[in-house]
Batch of 3 targets.
Target 1
Amino acid sequence: MPKNTSPQKSARHVAVVMDGNGRWATARGLERLKGHVRGVDRVRETVKVAPAHGIEYLTIFAFSTENWKRSAREVLGLMALFRRFIRKESDTMMRDDVRVRFVGDRLRLDKKLRALMEDLEDRTKNNRTLNLTVALNYGGRDEITRAVRRIAQAVQSSALDPDNISEDTIADFLDTADLPDPDLIIRTSGEHRTSNFLTWQAAYAEYVFTQTAWPDFCESELVKSLEQYQNRDRRFGASEAV
Ligand code: FPP
């Protein structure tokens, strides 16, 4: 169930499609990877300031199931950035009381990265101030497909009665089972697409699209997006804001 029911409330769960790194770099005559490097700085900064703005859950789209189609150089560069981020930020996440989770299909990721991800999840599992979820090799349709497969297996083994399958059952089989639905989804860099991000979970989310590329998305940009959210009426299908 969406938890944030008042239009005045700040967004409890903010999810971000961090778009525009490549264009940001190309516009400056840099290679695309430099845009991702600057993007990591923005991730760090956003994690740091999020709790002060009432955010309890921050979910970021780091790598999609479609991103494998990029050049081998860019894919390898991104994977190296993820490994470095986990190694370098682990102590900071402990100091700042941030719980880190990963969603997406891990099976296609290399063993070393998977081990780092599991260690970080384990090390931070008792942290409470901010819940950071990193979507890595994530696609909303892929997540739903994997969930349906596991639901079918549960039915086949008689652990689940098909008549008892509800929306909550489906939510429980998704990678995000432990997370509330996002209240606000921000997409940077001018594209107005959802791009297979949180396909199930976004049913009642508010979207904010900004022109700013992710490498330039500083705290004041976050504040502007949160203000837009606060000015929206969330109705969840009712005739007035509930
Ligand atoms: C989209 O920009 C961005 C990505 C596919 C990668 C996002 C990754 C980071 C910001 C790295 C940091 C993440 C973590 C968790 C350390 P794009 O390359 O599609 O930009 P374009 O549309 O301008 O080409």
Note: The chain has a mean pLDDT of 95.
Target 2
Amino acid sequence: MENSEQKKPIILSGITPSGMLTLGHLCGAISNWVKLQNSYDCYFMIADMHAITVRQQPAELRKRTLETAAIYIASGIDINMSKLFIQSHVPEHAQLTWVLNTYTGFGECSRMTQFKDKSQVHAENINVGLFDYPVLMAADILLYQADLVPVGEDQKQHLELTRNLAQRFNHLYSDTFKVPEPYIAKVGARVMSLQEPTKKMSKSDANQNSTIFLSDSDDVIKNKIKRAVTDSGSEVKFSDDKPGVSNLMELYHIATNKSISDIELEFEGKGYAEFKPAVADAVAEYVKPIRTEFEKLMKDKEHLTKILQQGADSARGAAFKTLRKVYKKIGFVQF
Ligand code: ATP
Ligand code: LTN
């Protein structure tokens, strides 16, 4: 039995398996999670229930879900330290969502900017699940009594709703949920599109040359970087009016750990023709071990599925405990 004084703060986060993960996910999310693993009790999930708010091909969703898990592990998520699981394997997520729905105002969900944006992009399928997406996310977080939630800037509004729901419920009954804090990674970890460097690199970009997927081969990575949009002039300098070059410098920094000022010095007097191949090689080297491990994991799906089943088993204890508490407080007969 763990001594309560030794209990680490709890972290929960996840990514929706709606496409192959990118260098952006690695730098902006997963590599941060890896660093947090030692100091926190971590729950990392694959949000397949969120994925179906947009129509998915069943075989593709199944494949993406396993691939996302494999990328988490290949990038350094340690299954002996963190709980790694698929959201739909823990039924308490759906159960708590239903309860929280009855404490969420229609107006609150209508105001979510992601819902408004996605309703425009998927105008042919504005389903109730898309509307309810933030409540499911609140359930994900509150089930595990998370203290901190590492998310991108775009998820901050959902986290604010989560905090409001937790406070509302606690106030109506008694302390039930931990009120979580967002953990927004530093701005440097925002990887931009290689073709439109003012937009973030995204797994759903229509132009494949914009995005480095973690499954891309060395040659594909190198070609994408060599074709990346640069800015006028030829100076390798980090500045707001040079978004293309600045993004490549950021990638070089991530891949080599060299500081931005050292990179400027290294390429002083040299043009893009020397800079781009250096970035291409460095990024390819950086992604290679992750891709190699990813491919190895994907060759043994049975083993991967077993890992995920064990992850769900260990996550369920905490989830069940919270749900039971909630059911009791709202007046459901105990089972
Ligand atoms: P989609 O295009 O399918 O809506 P996406 O690729 O833009 O998705 P999400 O899957 O919503 O991104 O990203 C999950 C999390 O991964 C984000 O909240 C963010 O923290 C991180 N992330 C994604 N893309 C990047 C990026 N280019 N740079 C830094 N972090 C990123
Ligand atoms: N919607 C999130 C993914 C997600 C998540 C969560 C993140 C689902 N549930 C709970 C943190 C906590 C996204 O980043 N697109």
Note: The chain has two domains: 10-188+301-330, 208-296.
Target 3
Amino acid sequence: MILLKNARVFDGKELNEESADVLLKGTTIEKIAPSINMEEGMQVIDLDGKILAPGFIDLHVHFRDPGFEWREDIESGSKAAAAGGYTTVVTMPNTDPAVDTPALVKYVFERGRQAGGARVLPGACVSKDRKGELLAELGLLREAGAVLFTEDGAPVRTSKLLRTALLYCKDIGAIIMEHPEEISLTEKCQVNEGRISSLSGLKGFPHSAEYIDIERGIALCRETKAPIHFTHVSTSLAFKAIAEAKNEGLPVTCDVTPHHLSLDENNVIVSRYHSVYKVNPPLRSREDVKAAWAAVADGTIDAIVTDHAPWHENEKDLPFEEAPFGIASLECSVAVVLDTWLKMGKPVSLSRVLELFTSGPAAILPEEWRGLGHIAEGAVADLTVIDLDESKVVDVSTWKSKARMTPWNGEILTGWPVMTFIEGRLFDGGGSYGEN
Ligand code: DOR
């Protein structure tokens, strides 16, 4: 049994400023009370007023396994997630082979179970081989353990396929996670369209590309009444469209990334086009970052996801135009968000920020996993401890992840996850991968 003393408990919705003790027994939370007496055989950890939250959930990570394990495999990714404060992550299926069969779904789940870090839940493809032609066997994939369906890296190729997939998902209690991009508008694009594309001469992703795909999804959602989730939303135009759909009562949800909440296109210029800032969707304007925080405040955004996109240094450390898209961030993403939130003068309540890492994403998962985003007696003991006063340098040489290139390496950030409990077990690091 583990007794956590003097915690400020965030239960998934509200932060209780009164100090509480929380007792973990086996894999569950046994008791929560203002004070619990220590008994023999208990391991006691004094949290000294730190925040005890439900284990953080990341609905969108790329672990490159199977197929590209040198970039990240399920074990390194799962450990990186736990080191970064996450207890559950959902993997994207843009692997090789793409995760489009029950056997591959089970492979990801089983490898995750053995990995020794965060729980790994498989996301599966909408179409066979992610080709956008034939619908994958969504029912069988769901039965095998897939928690959502996505073509991430690309949108669902045709409206017809998306409509059919939405109708299937409605029946099987799953959700489509749409990567919102009208690809006929984004061919060869490199950066945001606007100031940076004008200054650099690089081709810019127009905001309409995100907006058009979101409007397509909303139209199909309106017709089918099937839930749809838009991932890594980045423009004020898109937040507005999603807010309107929500006001209309449609089952639409969305998420935003730590990089779109903290960085903007100027970082690309100031860094003289460093490839660590190359990501899809691209870093947008300062106004879009402000719109993202406004969308956090008004409830438009349901979750924060990393879109952790690991690449080997040899593949990513190239001139901007030649480098692949993607930011690796699992081990500093929580601190990036909290540090930005602190520096911006706390534009929203802390509870609202914590909700987007816990009960927000949990509500998007299928029924059997929804309990994960809450702290209550009898709930699974997945917990993240946050120290808002902790300041630390981001040092990729200590990462569990195989990725080494991130925009924040060497930066001092304030507000860190300092302990992660997965099913009642304190994550102790589980060995580093060092140089790769
Ligand atoms: O920047 C990105 N990288 N965006 C995506 O949508 C895919 C991801 C990847 O797989 O590397």
Note: Residues 62, 94, 152-153, 179, 279-280, 307, 309, 325-326 surround DOR (CB under 6 Å).
